[in-house]
């Protein structure tokens, strides 16, 4: 028999348990837990972090933690909102009419978002592939992301901006480059980057710098007419600022 999960709220000062205070307290406690989990995930990875470790970090026993989150997966889902990027993707597609700038923005945003996650996206993919039924929302959100790349590339080819290529394969190539860069970012944070003992001199780039690195590496090889990538970056950055990102 496993340990029964606690479903009642841990008791506190009953004089302060008004509905407003209880709601605020609950939101605050959830934030404390997700903050602690985020730090542990970033330092040692999702799989190596146990629920009991998270509980200890916030001064709870594991049975009390179940009141706030029924599982480690629930904490994971609270940290990663798969649909958060969908409105941004739609705005980029609807409000930007320059295909090169659109693609630059999508590449940079994808890398930045993945670097800012408290866990490696490669680990996330492995987890989702093992339990797809639990993460249908995440899969649908990422499908929107993938399709946005395909749509922009296809339109760019039709308009003569991008070289002829299978748009779906090019989109997968871009996402794979992005995933590799964010993996190096997270491995470096955890001190696990294999390139370090191979002689690589680590440069501690910000997520934004990594995102721009991806875009300036990928885009020139796709253009039918050479263009200064710095000028593309400046237009993309200006548009991101205009859109409030």
Could you explain how this protein is built, in words?
With 245 residues, the chain is mainly α. It folds into 2 domains: 66 residues, Arc Repressor Mutant, subunit A; 157 residues, Tetracycline Repressor, domain 2, CATH 1.10.357. Helices cover 64% and strands 0% of the residues. The protein is built from 11 helices and no strands. Helix 5 packs parallel to helix 8 and helix 9 packs antiparallel against helix 10. It is globular. The N and C termini lie far apart (50 Å).
Largest beta-sheet details: none
Principal-axis shape:
globular
Q: How would you state the average pLDDT, rounded?
A: 84
Helix proportion: 55-70%
Q: SSE order, as H and E?
A: HHHHHHHHHHH
CATH class of the largest domain: Mainly Alpha
Helix/strand-derived category reads mainly alpha
Distance between the termini: 50 Å
**Count of discrete structural domains:** 2
Taking pLDDT < 50 over at least 5 consecutive residues as the criterion, the unreliable ranges are: 1-9, 11-24
How many helices? The count is 11
E-strand count: 0
What does the radius of gyration come to?
21 Å
């Amino acid at each position: 028999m496993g340990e029964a999960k606690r479903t009642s709220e841990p008791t506190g000062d009953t004089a302060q348990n008004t509905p407003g205070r209880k709601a605020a307290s609950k939101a605050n406690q959830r934030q404390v837990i997700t903050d602690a989990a985020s730090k542990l995930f970033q330092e040692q990875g999702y799989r190596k972090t146990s629920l009991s470790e998270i509980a200890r970090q916030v001064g709870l026993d594991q049975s009390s933690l179940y009141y706030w989150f029924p599982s480690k997966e629930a904490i994971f889902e609270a940290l990663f909102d798969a649909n958060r990027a969908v409105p941004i993707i739609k705005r980029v597609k609807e409000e930007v009419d320059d295909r090169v700038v659109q693609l630059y923005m999508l590449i940079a945003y994808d890398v930045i978002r993945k670097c800012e996650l408290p866990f490696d996206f490669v680990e996330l993919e492995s987890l989702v592939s093992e339990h797809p039924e639990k993460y249908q929302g995440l899969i649908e959100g990422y499908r929107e992301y993938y399709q946005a790349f395909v749509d922009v590339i296809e339109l760019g080819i039709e308009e003569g901006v991008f070289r002829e290529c299978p748009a779906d394969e090019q989109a997968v190539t871009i996402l794979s480059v992005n995933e590799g860069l964010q993996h190096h970012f997270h491995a470096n944070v955890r001190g696990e980057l294999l390139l370090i003992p191979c002689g690589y001199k680590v440069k501690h780039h910000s997520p934004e710098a990594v995102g721009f690195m991806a875009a300036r590496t990928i885009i020139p090889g796709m253009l039918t007419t050479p263009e200064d990538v710095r000028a593309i970056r400046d237009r993309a950055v200006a548009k991101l600022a205009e859109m409030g990102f």
